[in-house]
Structure formats: C-alpha cells, structure tokens
Amino acid sequence: MSLAEHPGPVACPGCLAAPASARLGMAGGEPIHLSLPTIHCAGCISTVEQGLLALPGVRDARVNLTRKRATVHVDGLTAADLVTAVSQLGYEAQPLDALTLGTGGTDRVARDLAMRLGVAGFAMMNVMLLSVAVWAGATDATRDMFHWISAAIALPTVTFAAQPFFGNALRALRVGRLNMDVPISLAIVLACGMSIWETIIHGEHAYFDAALSLTFFLLAGRYLDQRMRRTARSAAAELAALEVPTALRLTGSGTQTVRIAEVGVGDVLLVQPGARVPVDGVLTAGQTELDRAWLTGETDPVPAAPGDQLRAGEVNLTGAVQMCATAVGGDTLLHGLADLVAAAESSRSRYTTLADRAARIYAPAVHLLALAAFAGWVWITRDVHLSLNIAVAVLIITCPCALGLAVPAVSTVASGRLFRAGLLVKHDTALERLAEVDEVIFDKTGTLTLGPPVLVGAELIAPETTALAAALAQGSAHPRSRAIAAAAGTTLPTIKNIREVPGYGIEGRWDGQAVRLGRPEWAGGTGGTTLSVNGAPVATFQFEDRLRPGAADLVASLTARNIPVSLLSGDAKSAVADVAAKLGIADWQAGVLPEDKAQVLRAKAAAGRRVLMVGDGFNDLGAMALAHVSIAPASALDAARVAADLVLVSPDLTHIAGALTVARSARRRILENFALSAVYNAVAVPLALLGVATPLMAAVAMSSSSILVSLNALRVRS
User: Percent of the chain, pLDDT > 70?
Assistant: First the structure.
C-alpha cells in the first residue's frame, strides 16, 4: 500500500506504546475496539456483527450492547476500514484504544466484601446457637467448653472478616488522624480480648457473639455502600482516546508517517477521508465535510474549504485535504478540554458525604467517651476488670453501625427505585448532590432531541424515487444520506461511477443519466436535500431532529417547581431556537463551544448555584464535570456516560423529574436515620456509662438500631 493510498492516522489513540502492528490492527489478529454510540437493541448487535464478519480479513466480531462497544479481531485491516464498513450499515463508529481506555472488570472490592460478609454471618449464627446454650443455664465445664468453641469460631472469623476495618484504621492512625474505622476496630478487638480473658478465668460471660454481630452488621453497611460505587474510567481518558497517535506529514519527497509528538507548528499535513484531524490548524488545500459532533454537537457535517479552521479530533468525512498546523500537543483544543475534565473530576472527588462529615465529630467523641468511662469507673471502684467491661460496652453501644448504614441503606433502596424507573446511579454521592439541585442546564442534540436527522414525509415520495436516492446515498457517510438509505427497501437500482463531492453531495450514472443528491443549489433544486436526474429535480427530502419522549413534560415539571431551565448548544441558531420554542425554554444559547459551556458552569458554581447538567457528547464533558451533578442518556458517547453521575437508560426524559423527587426523599430519610442514631445514643449511652448494659446487651442494642435504620430506608420505595 502506497502512502497515497494509506487511510491515514485514524484514531487508534494512545497506541504509541504498542508495536506498530498493534497500532494499525494488521496481521496477527490484533483486536480493534470501536465505540458504537447509536446501537440500542439486539437487532443492532446482529446487523453490526454480521456486517463486520462479512468483511474479508475479519476473524471475529463481538458487540457489547451495555458498553456500546465492538471488539473486532482482524488480519490485514485497519480501524478506518471497520469504521467505513459500520458507517455503511447505518451506524456511527469511532475507533478506541484498549491500552488508553482499559478493559474494565468486575468489582473486586464488592466481591471481597460479600465474601467476608458471608463468612461473618455464618460464624455469627453458629456462635449465637452456642450462646443460647449458655443463656439456657450451662455452667462450669460445659459453659467453658462452649466458650472455647465460640472462640475457635470467632477469632479466625474476626481476623479475616474485619480486615477492611483494621486496615483502614491502621492507615488513619499512621498519619495521625481518626476515622470511623478506628472505634469500630477498637470495639471488635476489645470485645474479643475481654471474651478470651473471661474464658480463661472461667467467667460467666463471653462476648464473641457481640464481636461477630458487630462485624457482620458493619460489613453489611460497607457492602451496601460499595454497591453504590461503580468503578469507571476517567472521562479525561476517554477524551485522550480521540487523540491521533500518528500523522501524515508532507515533505518535498512525498508523505511521511510521523508520531504526533514530532509534528510542529507550521508543518503541512495530509488528512485523508475517514481520518481524524491530528492537530489544530488551517485547511490549505482541498474541500471536505467535517464531523464536529464531539466539539459542537451539530448533527450535520460542516463544509470546509481553504482558510477554514480545523480542530484536533474532528473527522474528515469526504475529500482528502491538506492543513497547516497552528497548535500541537498540549496546545490543542482537544488536549485542553481533556485537562479541564481531569481537573474538574479531581475537584468533584473532594465532595464529602453526610456520613463523612458526621464521622469527623463522631469518631473522636466515641473514644473520649469510652476513655472517660474507663477512667471514671477505675477511680470509683478500683476494679480494672469491671471498668474495662463498661468501656467495651460503651464502645460497642456507640459503635457507628447505624451511622454507617444511614447513607448506604437509603442510597441502595433509592438506587433500586431509580433503576426500575430507568436511571443508573454511578457515583456514591450523586443522590445527595441531586437532592440539592436548584437549576438545570440541557444540551440539545442527542439530549433533548434524538440526535441523528430523521426523514419525514417519505410516504409522499414515490418508492422508486426513494430507492434511487437511497442507491446514491449508500455511497456516503453523511447523516442525511444514512436517513435516506434507511427509509428505502432492500431492492435498489444500480448506480455507476458514484462520486462524492465534498460539501455538496453525491452523484453518479443511472441508465445513462446523470443523477445527483445533495444541496439544492448544486443538484438543481430550490430547497431541502434534492434528488435530480439530468439536472431536473425529481424529489426533495425533508428532515427533522425529533424531540425525545417526555422532553416537554420534563421542562414543564421543572418550571412548575420553580427550577430555572437553560439550553446550551453548539448547534445553529435556527435549530436551537426551534427546540427552545417547542419546549418553552426562554434562556437558550446557540453556537456554544465546549470551553464556553465549561465557563458558564464555572460561573454558576462561583455564584453558589447547584446545577444539574444533562448532556451526551464530548462537547458537554467539561460542563458535566464542573456541574454539581450530571446525567447522560444511554445513547450518549462513552465518555459522556463515564463523566455522568447518573445514566438515563429509559428514553423517557420525565424520569429525570422523578429522580429529583426520589433524591430529595432519600436525603430526608438519611437525615431521619441520623436523628434515629442520635436518639438511640441518647438513650443507650447513659445506660452503658452507668454499667447497666453488658457488652452483649450493647451488641443487641447496636444491632437493633441498625435494623431500625434499614427499615426506615425502605420508606424511600413508596
């Protein structure tokens, strides 16, 4: 393959660390990963897989609907070949690199906690049975035997199952601070230590069951909390996956493939059809159409001619062009947006949960209280054994089990309700932040609307005319061409000498006649996308970007709640104004670039506004990361779904209004759980301090409070 025939540096990003064969997806069966943001059903999976498998050189193709990702093993093909093939099937495709993105995996933390929870529960039930025998009146050697059996079960179990608490407590103590796990670990260790001592001296009471029940309930809370966390790749990494690893530089002797790091300002580069623009620059030769969806959200390709600006990450759809680089490396708009998203993600991670804020006060208070109880009873009774028992009871009865369950129990119930309504909660603090929302900002294309243009009025056009247009349209990746091709039947006329004219349309020969499909001024029409035969227009095709189901009801619901609604879009003014008018949104802006959206969100945050951002594309990432909370539809690009705190699986936008209601209900339940924990401590702690509650009674009281908190969390379902 000559350099002139080379498909160019299509985005197989981040592959510079890989061998050349891996970067280009050549011989050896190397996998190529494609993002398929527009697939939505089993039929899509079958169409894409069968279409790819029909290509010579494709050994295997697997489509994952959940991740909207295809993994294709090829011999002798490039990512550009696969993108072209998928585009001809009517679906959008973008090459991604597995080294940059990672392949994900199972949630090992949740699995580990579930295993420890199961072990603790099994051991707790067995020790409880032995404790019943002791309570029933077993004495002397029989009682000691049951205590030793309990110790043989409890000590290994606690050592294994309570490791998450022990590890976190040690890490906190090493840096000189306290967290929730310090009093938890101290209570478990002291309960076990006191129980061993009681067993050695033939005492009547041992508290192995208390230590195990404490471990079990705390692990349950930790597991519920972990279920709220979804390990996700960074949205900044998704953006980086659009960066091109190589470029075609024009030299005096021809073209030269160079690493992107070697491209300098002033270099003249060749960008071939299907390739991503490698750096920012100015188009110097040739005409084409650009897919700027990642940058502006525009549904239609944008014509580009000499003198027009090109941005890294844009896709060259039609003609080969030359460009002069004006910004490279970290100075490109794409790289700057990735840095913005990374910085915003870091700031988002500093948001602390209600439980974390409560723990800052609670943890040191518990230690001081237990220490005061021990010192006070030693001073009063001079009995270290009794004083230590009381101190352990205080630690157990004040152990933040209910507090630890307060947030995850409610969050899990609320997340389950939202899941049934078509919303996935991804971030552990998303519900708390969603409950605080006082303003909502929407993107337009793909968010309030369905995105790709849809052919309307096709029934008014003769089927043979639509078939003729579709036969031409099959040779183009233009979204409107795809819409026409999708509207036609399976039997199409034969078109010869098909040629796409960048920025205008597509033409060919049919039965010896010249046929054209494209812009009206080029095809001989007066408006709309025109089909002409020998220069005479025979049909005009009209398109629309349909509103998503529930869009109008959602805006009306938010307005009724006195929540301000805004629309920020990179699309053309007329298209944005039309959607805003249909939905009754008075505050809207068109032609907004990604950095402008981010600046709007930054200003809102500085003004104390807590904004919900709803978006679906790369152009929304900065704004979504800077928003107080964000939502992306399931049809959004991978990076937008990664950046979002919640993903709307249902096509109906009204579920977002329901999510606000559920979030505020969940926040009320969380605050109620904190109140229940406070009342419990107000009653139980004095009893423990007075020596009335034994460690076993403290464990029962602690477990009861945890159950009460969990039952209150179930109220979120109603």
Answer: 78
The CA angle 574-580-581, to the nearest 5 degrees, is 90
> Which residue type occupies 637?
L
- Residue 143 belongs to what H/E stretch? helix 140-161
Q: Which residue's entry shows tokens 């003609």?
A: 319
pTM of the complete model beyond 0.70:
no
Strand partners, 271: 321
Q: Is the torsion defined by CA of 206, 208, 213, 219 positive or negative? A: positive
What pLDDT, on the 0 to 100 scale, is given for residue 99? 43
Amino acid of residue 581: A
Length of the chain: 718
Q: pLDDT of 527-583, one tens digit each?
A: 778 999 998 999 999 887 788 889 999 999 999 999 999 999 887 787 889 899 999
- Render 5-41 in DSSP notation, one character per residue: T-------TTGGGS-HHHHHT-TTT-EEEEE-TT--S
> How many whole angstroms separate alpha carbon 715 and alpha carbon 289?
55
DSSP line for 224-283: HHHHT------HHHHHHTTS-SEEEEEETTEEEEEEGGG--TT-EEEE-TTPBP-SEEEE
pLDDT tens digits along 403-437? 666 666 677 778 777 877 777 777 767 888 899 99
The one catalytic residue in 443, 616, 620, 645 is: 443
Query: What domains are defined for the chain?
Result: 1-105 (3.30.70.100), 108-229+358-411+665-717 (no CATH), 244-334 (2.70.150.10), 423-451+548-649 (3.40.50.1000), 454-544 (3.40.1110.10)
- Give me the long-range contacts of 570-577 (CB less than 8 A, separation at least 24): 570/292, 570/295, 570/296, 570/297, 570/298, 570/445, 570/594, 570/619, 571/296, 571/297, 571/298, 571/299, 571/444, 571/445, 572/298, 575/444, 575/545, 576/444
CA atoms of 458 and 468, how far apart (whole Å): 13
Give the pLDDT of residue 156: 95
Q: Per residue in 491-506, pLDDT tens?
A: 788 888 888 877 788 8
Contact call for residues 585 and 565 (beta carbons, < 8 A): yes
CA dist 623 and 602 (Å) reads 8
What local confidence, expressed as pLDDT, does residue 232 receive?
Answer: 35
pLDDT tens-digit series, residues 583-629: 999 999 988 888 888 899 999 989 999 999 998 877 788 888 889 99
Give the C-alpha separation, 701 to 396, whole Å.
Answer: 9
pLDDT for the residue numbered 27: 33
Q: Active-site residue 443, yes or no?
A: yes
Q: What is the mean pLDDT of the chain?
A: 78
